[in-house]
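Hey,
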Amino acid sequence: MTNQLILIIEDDIEIVRILQAYFERDGYRTVSATDPLIGLSHHQRLKPDLVVLDVKMPKMDGFETLAALRNVDDTPVIMVTALAEDLDKLQALRLGADDYVVKPFNPLEVVARARAILRRSQGGRSTSVLRLGPLSIDSDAMTVHVGTGILGLTRTEYRLLEHMARSPNRVFERSELIDACLPEGEAMNRTVDSHMSNLRRKLGAAGLPDLITGIRGVGYRLDTPNG
């Protein structure tokens, strides 16, 4: 049985109770907040393993709350919302969400997605350090260094980079990247593109602007870096 802590930030108390019941039935511990500011305080104090975050809330919406979370660390986040538009999903992913569930939802699905994200983020990684030019990818710590600096990546961005770095100069189809690196559930080609856009921007800011090449109609290639 798991003892991992799930933080639920949701202003609908009935949804909170339902999610808590299903997570706790699966062996997770839960803590909740109907106020996003209190939720951020819980996150800072309790260091949960995963956050389930509503979008439409008073004081701060879910996007603002997600941005605040990402300024602190890369705790996995599942967005839960009534907004079904693709642009809203892509905005959540650009801000660093790991997954996105639209209301009304099956609570079993939310628990299953959380379990998949936690399994991917904590297990099945090699303890070796992968080095490619100035890149140093520590699979055990899930960190990426460029020279002496550390690259601030979300878990999904890290998974994409590590997966491609194990086969540099190879073209990966989007469908393969979805299967290998993205959480179970609704994943679109544009989802991969959004994560990859963030990853390329961060690599560019670290001095590696041309490391990842987009192959039109196919996917992406990570080129062997110099240095």
